Each structure stands twice: as structure tokens, then as C-alpha cells.
């Protein structure tokens, strides 16, 4: 390389199988694909420390380094955010990702993302996210601190050995105490939103999400959910198909055009108020996995964020809450938010 590498990419499971030039195009959108291909051919891109061809297929965990520089000046507004650390271990790091922060760099979030924040805080090489959370989803995000730890943890995700537990506030009152959503998920070809998924799609991939009702109000339900598969938008699509969309969901809520208007920065104020929250009410509350070196069981939990806690507070006393477990009852039938944040009964 003619210059020291300034962009480092770790290939995610979702990106596995992409050609190297297409991966670069997705991660470095301000450069054209022909120019990126030429960069690869000139040896200015290293795959796992060595040169590679543009057509080389990448694998999850592969590391790409290139001397391409971000042409935009670093401004105060673009500085990475501080992240709350939930667990710090020589082999892994678990952070509490806030809603609105992208996991990896994208065209819209080249600097404002978890990986940039980790690089800003820990230097090179930074801890690398092992999985993804949607932009508006908050909660536990697991990162590796070494190549071997990343390989072991990614394999646990791939083999569905990691337990993921989410909290979701949904529209409507679910009378069923618990159950399973098992509709296959595939692209919704009839949607204007390219990333929208549809449960029950004929050519979709199998998907399973278990749920349990934590509390009910007249018009809302708080659920604990465990996805056994890791399909795109799995929880949100399954809930929407069941008629109980996540509160604040711009894609699967009352009108998917809200998402397109939001992207364009033209979401009407009336539509924003109708969504009830400025982001979808989905929170990655807990993650259970095995230590990548010792194989010991690990559990990490993220406290309920202030915006979701405030929404719950505003609903007033719940009509009912989960029997057993560790949720606490306060005066007037209100649930304890301390119980939700610290000792949530999981599935």
C-alpha cells in the first residue's frame, strides 16, 4: 500500500459470499465500483493481510484494509458517540447500543456508528461487532477483541447457540400469554420499501420467534421475545403479520410511506405524532452465550432505555403483568421499571 490503511472492514455474516469489490462498494459508497476494482487490482486493498482479486468471495470474519480515505472533514457533529459498556473482558466487549446509532459504517452513517465509536475509544484494531442490531433498536451488542474470539463467537451465532432476548412494546392487547411465530420470512415484493420483509412469503426462509406477554394495557402489550433464527427484521415482521406492530415502527407500522418520508427528511409532524415514539420500541434486553476461550456461560443485560421507560410510565397502571419472574408490583398496579431493567424474566 502506498499509504497506511485508513479504513478497516470486518465482514459480517450478512455480507459473507459477496465479491470483494461489491463489499467495498457497499462500505465505501463515495467511491465508484470501477475505481474500487482498480484499487484492488493495484494492491491497495488487503484481504486478511494479503492482496486479492475483485471477484474473490469474502467470508464472515474476513478483515479488509484499504488506504481509501474519507474525503469529508471530521466535524464536531460527526464525532462518534460515547458507548455504555455492559461487560469488558480480554476476549469480548458488550456495549449498550443506543437507538439511532448504526452498528457498522454505511453511506448515511460513515462516522456515526458503533465501529467508529469503538475505534475512537480503543484505537486500532478496535473491538468488532459480532452481530448487528437495526438502527433504531437499542440494547446489548456483542463485540470481539481478537480474531479468534470473533471466529468462535460468530460460529455460536451461526449455529444458533446464542440466546437473544428482546423487549417490545406493541400495539394492541395480546390475550394469549405466550406462543410462537413461525411464518417464513421473505422480501415483500409488493412494498415500496426495498428492505421490508413479509411473514408467510412463499419463497421465504424458515423463521421462529417465541414470545411471552410481560404486561398488558388497554391498547398496548409489552412482550419478551426470543428469536431462534436471525432473519432480517424477524421480530418486527412477525409481530406485524400477527396484527401487533411494534410501537413507532415506520416500516411495519400504520403506513410504510412514513419510512420513505423519514429517510427523505420530510416526515409530517402529524405522522410523527401518530407513531407515538421517534423510534421503534424494540430493545435487545439480554444475550446469553459461551465465553470464546473458557466456554463458561455468559449473560449480559442492558437496562431499559429512558425513552421506552418513559413511554411505559405514561401508560399508567398495567391491567396485568407476567406471573412469577422478577417483575415487581408497585402501588396502583404499576410495574417496576427497575425490575424490567435489571431482573427481567426471560423466556
Question: How is the secondary structure organized here?
Answer:
Layout (H helix, E strand, L loop, with lengths): L6 E4 L9 H8 L5 H9 L3 E3 L15 E4 L17 E5 L3 E6 L16 H9 L5 E2 L8 E7 L2 H12 L4 E9 L6 E4 L3 E3 L9 E3 L9 E8 L3 E8 L6 H8 L15 H7 L5 H7 L6 E9 L6 E5 L4 H10 L4 E2 L15 H6 L5
Parallel strand pairs: 7-14
Antiparallel strand pairs: 1-3, 2-3, 4-5, 5-7, 6-7, 8-13, 8-14, 9-12, 10-11, 12-13, 12-16, 14-15
Helix pairs in contact: 1-2
Describe what this molecule looks like in 3D.
This protein is α+β, with helices and mostly antiparallel strands. The chain has three domains: 7-66, RNA-binding S4 domain (Structural Genomics Hypothetical 15.5 Kd Protein In mrcA-pckA Intergenic Region, Chain A, Roll); 78-158, Pseudouridine synthase (2-Layer Sandwich), CATH 3.30.2350.10; 163-288 and 311-322, Pseudouridine synthase (2-Layer Sandwich), CATH 3.30.2350.10. It is built from nine helices and 16 strands. The strands form three sheets. Strands 4, 5, 6, 7, 8, 9, 12, 13, 14, 15 and 16 form an eleven-stranded mixed sheet that branches. A three-stranded antiparallel sheet has the order 1-3-2. The longest helix has 12 residues, at 147-158. Residues 1-5, 72-77 and 324-345 have low confidence and may be disordered.
Amino acid at each position: 500500500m502506498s499509504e497506511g490503511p485508513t479504513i478497516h472492514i470486518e465482514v459480517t455474516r450478512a455480507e459473507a459470499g459477496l465479491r470483494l469489490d461489491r463489499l467495498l462498494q457497499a462500505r465505501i459508497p463515495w467511491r465508484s465500483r470501477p475505481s474500487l476494482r482498480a484499487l484492488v487490482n493495484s494492491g491497495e486493498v488487503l484481504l486478511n493481510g494479503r492482496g486479492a482479486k475483485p471477484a474473490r468471495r469474502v467470508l464472515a470474519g474476513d478483515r479488509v484494509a484499504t488506504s481509501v480515505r474519507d474525503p469529508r472533514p471530521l466535524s464536531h457533529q460527526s464525532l462518534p458517540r460515547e458507548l455504555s459498556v455492559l461487560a469488558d473482558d480480554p476476549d469480548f466487549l458488550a456495549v449498550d447500543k443506543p437507538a439511532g446509532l448504526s452498528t457498522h459504517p454505511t453511506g448515511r452513517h460513515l462516522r456515526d456508528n458503533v465501529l467508529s465509536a469503538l475505534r475512537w475509544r480503543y484505537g486500532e484494531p478496535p473491538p468488532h461487532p459480532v452481530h448487528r442490531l437495526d438502527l433504531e433498536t437499542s440494547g446489548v451488542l456483542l463485540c470481539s477483541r481478537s480474531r479468534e474470539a470473533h471466529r468462535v463467537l460468530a460460529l455460536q451465532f451461526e449455529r444458533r447457540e446464542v440466546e437473544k432476548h428482546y423487549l417490545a412494546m406493541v400495539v394492541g392487547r395480546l390475550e394469549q400469554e405466550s406462543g410462537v411465530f413461525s411464518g417464513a420470512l421473505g422480501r415483500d415484493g409488493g412494498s415500496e420499501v426495498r428492505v421490508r420483509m413479509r411473514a408467510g412469503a412463499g419463497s421465504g426462509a424458515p423463521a421462529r420467534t417465541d414470545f411471552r406477554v410481560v404486561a398488558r394495557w388497554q391498547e398496548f402489550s409489552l412482550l419478551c421475545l426470543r428469536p431462534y433464527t436471525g432473519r432480517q427484521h424477524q421480530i418486527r415482521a412477525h409481530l406485524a403479520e400477527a396484527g401487533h406492530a411494534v410501537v413507532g415502527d415506520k416500516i411495519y407500522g400504520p403506513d410504510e410511506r412514513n419510512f420513505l418520508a423519514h429517510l427523505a427528511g420530510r416526515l409530517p409532524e402529524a405522522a410523527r405524532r401518530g407513531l407515538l415514539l421517534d423510534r421503534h420500541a424494540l430493545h435487545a434486553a439480554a444475550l446469553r452465550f459461551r465465553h470464546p476461550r473458557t466456554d463458561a456461560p455468559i449473560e449480559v443485560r442492558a437496562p431499559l432505555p429512558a425513552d421506552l421507560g418513559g413511554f411505559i410510565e405514561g401508560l399508567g397502571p398495567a391491567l396485568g403483568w407476567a406471573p412469577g419472574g422478577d417483575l415487581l408490583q408497585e402501588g396502583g398496579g404499576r410495574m417496576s421499571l427497575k425490575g424490567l431493567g435489571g431482573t427481567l424474566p426471560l423466556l
